[in-house]
Structures are given as C-alpha cells and as structure tokens.
Amino acid sequence: MSKFTVYPAIDIRDGRVVRLAQGDYQRETRYEGDPLTAIQAYAAQGAEWLHLVDLDAARAGGYTLAPLLQAITASTGLKVQTGGGVRSRDDVARILQAGAQRVVIGSLAVRDSKRVLQWLAEFGPEHITVALDARQDASGVWRLPVHGWTETAAEILDQKLRQFADAGLSHLLSTDIQRDGMLTGPNLDLYGHIQAHAPTLRVQASGGVEKLADIAAARAEGCAGIVLGRALLEGRFSLAEALAC
C-alpha cells in the first residue's frame, strides 16, 4: 500500500481560524489563537503536510493568504496544499511561487473544467489538487455544489471523475458536505464510489472525522490521505496520534 498522508487543516476567515458546519458560512465556529502559531504546533507534532483554505476567497475570489503561506513555509518547512478563490492561471502561479506544493481548485474545476485541465497539463499533476465536494440527492446521485457550496452544478460527480482521471489528475480531494464539520464520521460509501469510478486517483477523504478509527477506516477504503479539521482543533485526538494511526 502506498503512503497514507494525514493533512491537518486550517481554514481562515477574516484572519481567524474557523470551521463551518456543512459548508454554511452562517454556522461558523471560531477558534482562539494565531493561525501561524497553530500551524507551527502541527509541524512540531510531526506533520509533513498542511491543508490551508482561504474561506473569504472561496466566495469572493482573489486568494489572500500568500503572506501567511510564505510565513508557513519559511518557519515550518511544511508542504502546503492550499486554495480558495482560484480563478486564473496567474492565481495558480502566484500561489506556487509563494511556497505552496499544490494548489487546490474546487468550483472552477466544475464550472470550467477545460481551463483547469490546461493548468494540470502546464503545472503538472503533483502541483494541482482538484476538490470535488459532493452532496447526495434523494435519488442517490452525487451532486456538485460550487461557489462556496452555495450553488449546485448541472454535471454530477461521476462525469467529472472520469474527465479528470482520463486527463492524468493524481490528487483528488472530496468532501461529503453533509458530514463536513459534523463529527459523524467520513462517508466511506462516497470514497468507495470514487474508487470504483476512478481507481487511478489518489483520494483525500475529508469531512466528519471524529475519532482515530475513522482514519483507519478511510485508509482501509483505499483513500491515499485524510484531511483533519475540527477533531484536531477541539482536541478529540492529537495529531501525533493521528499520524501513528
């Protein structure tokens, strides 16, 4: 089995560390402390990667976390995958130049796949993570909310999985929005579904992790990594425990 990666997550809004429940900006929890201090603590506990999200940019566009990203890479040596509000090729280039290892592209990968496929070819599969966050409808179809999870695209998850896998995408992040921030466990059915439709993708599970057993379950389901947000911020287990899981 290939290496499984644990990604501690820091979501930033108005300069603060926050978490949203089910992607709802009206259901925000704020956490005390400076974001960089929290990130440095993760590095001290053995993290190799960080998942960093600009929630302001996710709705309004215009990635704002370049100064923080530069401080993270300078002070911790962490590899960072980061996104929020990525709209143009120049956005991708600037984020990589600021020190990111991978740029996360979400809504645009759904709304304008052709453009994102061009960036995938230009920057390479090790520098792009596509985020296909999903919500299952009443008929069992996985739909794709976009624009900060406030709208729903016409295309469905299965179509996008095939499109990006065929183009050579390596890293896919997928969140069941109904589980995000809810501490109800990751949706293993979603990850099994992705593996069945696009087995070449290295899938990062995200959303709902409550306990260490959830990490082991995601790995057993075939995921290549897992993003940990609220559970770490609230001390349900330590990053060191997660890394040892």
TrEMBL record:
<protein>
    <recommendedName>
        <fullName>1-(5-phosphoribosyl)-5-[(5-phosphoribosylamino)methylideneamino] imidazole-4-carboxamide isomerase</fullName>
        <ecNumber>5.3.1.16</ecNumber>
    </recommendedName>
</protein>
<keyword id="KW-0963">Cytoplasm</keyword>
<dbReference type="GO" id="GO:0003949">
    <property type="term" value="F:1-(5-phosphoribosyl)-5-[(5-phosphoribosylamino)methylideneamino]imidazole-4-carboxamide isomerase activity"/>
</dbReference>
<dbReference type="InterPro" id="IPR044524">
    <property type="entry name" value="Isoase_HisA-like"/>
</dbReference>
<dbReference type="GO" id="GO:0005737">
    <property type="term" value="C:cytoplasm"/>
</dbReference>
<keyword id="KW-0368">Histidine biosynthesis</keyword>
<dbReference type="InterPro" id="IPR013785">
    <property type="entry name" value="Aldolase_TIM"/>
</dbReference>
<comment type="similarity">
    <text>Belongs to the HisA/HisF family.</text>
</comment>
<keyword id="KW-0413">Isomerase</keyword>
<feature type="active site" description="Proton donor">
    <location>
        <position position="133"/>
    </location>
</feature>
<dbReference type="InterPro" id="IPR023016">
    <property type="entry name" value="HisA/PriA"/>
</dbReference>
<dbReference type="GO" id="GO:0000105">
    <property type="term" value="P:L-histidine biosynthetic process"/>
</dbReference>
<dbReference type="InterPro" id="IPR011060">
    <property type="entry name" value="RibuloseP-bd_barrel"/>
</dbReference>
<dbReference type="Pfam" id="PF00977">
    <property type="entry name" value="His_biosynth"/>
</dbReference>
<keyword id="KW-0028">Amino-acid biosynthesis</keyword>
<comment type="pathway">
    <text>Amino-acid biosynthesis; L-histidine biosynthesis; L-histidine from 5-phospho-alpha-D-ribose 1-diphosphate: step 4/9.</text>
</comment>
<dbReference type="InterPro" id="IPR006063">
    <property type="entry name" value="HisA_bact_arch"/>
</dbReference>
<dbReference type="InterPro" id="IPR006062">
    <property type="entry name" value="His_biosynth"/>
</dbReference>
<feature type="active site" description="Proton acceptor">
    <location>
        <position position="11"/>
    </location>
</feature>
<dbReference type="GO" id="GO:0000162">
    <property type="term" value="P:L-tryptophan biosynthetic process"/>
</dbReference>
